[in-house]
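OP here, attaching both records as promised.
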Amino acid sequence: MKPEHWILAACLLAGCARTASPPQPPDLKLGEMNCSRCGMSIDDGRFAAARQVGGVLRLYDDAGEMFLERKQSPAADEYLWVRDYNDQKWLDGRTCRYLRGSKIRSPMGFQVAATADELAAAPLAARWGCQVLDLETLQNQWNSQEEKQP
């Protein structure tokens, strides 16, 4: 085979190679799975969260536990998912909106909920009298707090 044929074959093979798809959120079974941090059963899907770092998936019964672990073990190669407070569907934890306030009754008392966007967050923020935050702002608040669990 001529060298130019080898180059063409290599290019064709490279083009057909599959690219790895990003990880998908876990198939959460409420009442059957436990929080990776505290060990409690994940029973309330409105507050569940998940974090994957380096192929290791960790589940949380309260998104606040995920934020504590991010503070303790930051990672650039992570995937984050949180459940939507309104419909309990998985959201991309990097792009959704978070609500944080004392009237939010999450399983471990971290007082955080998530929604798909600002529009979905607005009625909850009005009802609870709380802030609507993006991931970076919420994590920065978390990182500046003392290390304690509610």
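Record two, same layout:
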Amino acid sequence: MDTKKLGSNIRKFREEAGLSQQQLAERLGVSFQQLQKYEYGQTRLTVDRLMDISRLLHVPLLQFIPHEEIEETYGISAETETYAPFERVIVSPDEVKLIKYFRSLKNEKLRTTVLRQIKEWAEVYWDLESDFSSKNSEQ
């Protein structure tokens, strides 16, 4: 696997999530220098670490792998195939409802606003969770 392309995808998705290297590194439990090495392709990632990054950035695991490699290795065209059959995602009933309601919104501006709001709520939650775990670890 091309570690430089993989790292570039990690950087792209991190930036799209609005996280700094320091923020993602803290959530992963590594130094920001280590995250830099991942992003520049200087260090190979374990599958477990890539899964952690995927989970924290809310990006399907296969989206990190360069499409050309998927096509060459597995014979799957990135243009015509969806990655859904390879992602075994278990969703709660609430998540199903959320997807159903979101898909019912036809106005693109409204959908964008809803996504932005959910992202903001999640970020506040992550900050609160981080503060809470920091305070508990000090005791």
